[in-house]
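Troubleshooting entry. The earlier prediction with magnesium ion gave an output that would not parse, so I re-checked the input for stray whitespace and re-submitted. Clean input:
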Amino acid sequence: MSSPRIVEASFIKSAQSIADSLPEDMSEVVFLGRSNVGKSSTLNSLTQRKNLAKSSATPGKTQLINFFETRYLYNEENYPVRFVDLPGFGYAKVSKTLKEVWQKNLVEFIQHRVSIRLFIHLRDARHPHAKIDDDVKAYISEFIRPDQRYLTVFTKIDKLNQKERNKLKRDFPGSITVSNLKKNGHDRVHYEILDTIFAIEQTAQDLPGEKK
Ligand SMILES: Nc1nc2c(ncn2[C@@H]2O[C@H](COP(=O)(O)OP(=O)(O)OP(=O)(O)O)[C@@H](O)[C@H]2O)c(=O)[nH]1
Ligand SMILES: [Mg+2]
C-alpha cells in the first residue's frame, strides 16, 4: 500500500460565474475560506506543484473561479478529480453580513453547482474561532446535499507552538491541520478526497505518521 499521489495536474480555465464554468461532468473539490488563508497554497501542496494556483502574500489574489484537472494514482489505479480554487471572502472592508462580503456569483456557484462533491473550508489555525468562518460553516450546512461532504482544514499550523497546537486539537478533535510551508498534513486531505468521491477508505497500514 502506498499513499495516494496526484501524478498529473493542469489548469483548465477561469470563470466568472456558474454560467461560464466547465460542464458538470467531473467530481469537484472546492477550496473556500477567508482571503489569504492559503487556499491556493493548499491546492499547490496537494498537487505538489509550486505555482499551479497563484498564491500571494497580498489578500485578494484569486479573483475568479479557477478550475484544475488532476489525476490521482493510488494502488496502481487512476482517479480523476477536478479542483476548484475560489476567491476568498472577508476581504472587503465593509463586511457586515456574509452576502455583502461574498460575491453573488460565488454564492450561486457553491449552492447550485451539481458536480461539487467536497467543500474544503480552510481556516487559519491562529484564528480558529473567527466568526466569519463559523457563519460560513453554518451557511453551507443549510444547503449541503447528501452526496456532498464538508471538511474543515486548518492552515498555517507551523505558526503555532506546541501548546497552541494541543489546544487546537482539544478544541477541534480529529481536525485536519496542514502547513503549506513545511509541506505536512496533506495525506489526510488526500484520503478525505478519495473517500468522498470514490469511497476509498484509508486502511490502518497506510495511516501516515504525523510529521511535525
Ligand atoms: N506560514 C505559512 N504560510 C502560508 C501557509 N499557507 C499559505 N501561506 C501563505 O499565506 C499567503 C496567502 O496564501 P494564498 O495561498 O495565496 O492564500 P489564498 O487563500 O489563496 O488567498 P486569496 O486568493 O487572496 O483569497 C501566502 O503568502 C502564502 O505563502 C502555511 O501553511 N503556512
Ligand atoms: Mg488564492
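This one parsed fine. The longest strand covers residues 5-15.
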